[in-house]
Amino acid sequence: MKLNYKKTVFVGFAFFLISAFWQAYDTIIPKILTDKFGMSQSLSGVIMALDNVLALFLLPLFGTLSDRCRSRLGRRTPYIIFGTVMAAVFLVVLSFADNLQRNALEDVAVENPAAQETLYDAGLTITTPDGVVMDIQDEFTREEFAAISIRDESGSVNEDYTDYVVPARQAYAAQVTAQNRTPLIIFVAVLLIVLLSMATFRSPAVALMPDVTIKPLRSKANAVINLMGAAGGIIVLLLGSVFGTGSPENALMSYTVFFAAISGLMLGSLLIFLWRVKEPALVREMQEESERLGLVDEAEEAAGDRKLQKSLLLILASVVLWFFGYNAVTSKYSVYASSVLGLDYNSTLTIATGAAIVAYIPVGAVASRFGRRKTILAGIVILGGSFLLGSFVRAGTSPLVMNILFATAGIGW
Question: Which of 111, 104, 120 lies closest to 38, judged by CA?
């Protein structure tokens, strides 16, 4: 038995485009909510959790519906086509809703020379990254506040800028949003459509690999699928670096071209998938090979074993907690990096994803040698330790420190 890597890579393009979307979503949407709509971190976090709440109900639903689908294109492909096209189109529409709010903030745009004077004159009360509440007019004169530059003489982001100007701009954005909620309502409505579109095909896309791969080769195929997903994430982060999405100077930038590039990447991946993946034929091949090798599924004799059921529940609980921690960091890191640390989140997350890719094969060898359980436990310790140490990083800390911590986090993950 030998895995058809070429076939598996093309099947993996469905997961590639999913990962590309979520990488863009997790890094850009929280920045829009806080930078342009002035939301608190808590409220923006609630909106960022919407996809997970929807997933609890919609992923099982569309997974079941695709199981029952009898299309000439197969069970999974119709959902992948519909969901991808809808998500790609409305992702661009989402940027238009974002631009409505951006236009309302033109007076305080980073590139506007009088922006900080406008912020100062608004008489804002801000909360600094250290939790200190203050009125900026009590802390600075108008000239002092206007003179705060984004970067110091060394080229590093100025701490006064991240501590005072960024919170002031976000407070101003909150005022603008309170005066006219229409852009926010449109943005959240379109965002909901995008999330619903993604939910329609995530389960079918994940189910496709085992549909076309015989059971003994599914672990290897799963590694290929994960590599494709990681590749999708890295490409989006590299695009983010090209567009400067993580630069403090671009906090109020328009994301239309960037979102259009992500949509193009998704649609291009879909076309490659449709060109090379003929689902019904691949399913027949898998079934014929399974029968030839005597791999027809049999009922598990120990299905009712309470000890095994307990182990299964504990494994699922572990997965829930891993994702709790990991997603909590990745969905907020873009805001924290640009608003507090003055770092470009694209480079840090690229390093983390790259380290994960490099570690896949060696970690597999370690698991084979020492066992999966011990390897998983080691990974949890490495991941948790990296994030714990990362919590001590402050503005002015060498970017090398955060890059190393995210590299180890990628290996742990």
Answer: 104
